[in-house]
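2024-03-11 09:14:02 DEBUG pipeline.ingest accepted 1 chain
2024-03-11 09:14:02 DEBUG pipeline.ingest length=274
2024-03-11 09:14:03 DEBUG pipeline.predict start
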Amino acid sequence: MVDVDIKDYFGRIDHDRLMMEVGRRVSDRRVLKLIRGWLKAGVMEDGHREDTVVGTPQGGVISPLLSNIYLHVLDRIWQQRCAEVGVLIRYADDFVVLCRTEAQAREALRRVELILQHLGLEAHPEKTRLVALEGGKESFEFLGCRLRKCRSVRYPGRMFLQRWPSPRSMRRLRARIRELTDARCSGVKDVRVLIARLNPVLRGWGNYFRTGNASLKFNQIDHYVRQRLGLFLARRQGLRPRHVAISRWSSDWFWGLGLYRLFGTIRYPGVAHA
């Protein structure tokens, strides 16, 4: 398998090539003129305007859409000329190529680099790599998930590609939970207010990852949430030490207040649930 990261992606997009791709589907000259004007409008840095000759502004409202259109060329060329080498799976600027053999993976990487060069882009030399998945040797991250082949518990002797939240996804969620439960910054006095703020974050994050093998990670996050809420209550009541404060309130007590529970929400596509 080939895991590809594009170097300086947003800043390298060629405006003329991008507009040619947009023009394949959009015929209204006013719309095309508006998009070209937006691309060439420039950016403000420290109060000074700088022209933009190439690239799309990061954070721009339609930058992801235009960038996706630009990389559609990669999809088209791969489907027409390289499909026999491997399967290209792309989401915006994040993509992997799945191959059956190491030789195919090396050839896929060579072809990806040639196509990116054609587009004026470059594969990041440090973040682009070949990954050996057979036997669970290596893993890779894609769209916030860590993917690795693991032995099946239900079918002994067989291995399946499993996925769960990546370490980065876990860190980002913990940081958000810590931010929402920081009593020194939130000014909140009622734990139910914190729970009301946490629930949409937990539910949204859980809905994204719940079709994978995330039970262990979900359980870890549930424990972390209860720990943070316990510390909040301990500070409010002046309790110490830390471990005593956390154990004072049970999971059932927090759930009774409406806290969303991640563990037990795993749902596999195509499997009926009562």
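2024-03-11 09:14:41 DEBUG pipeline.report The first strand starts at residue 2 and ends at 4.
2024-03-11 09:14:41 DEBUG pipeline.predict end
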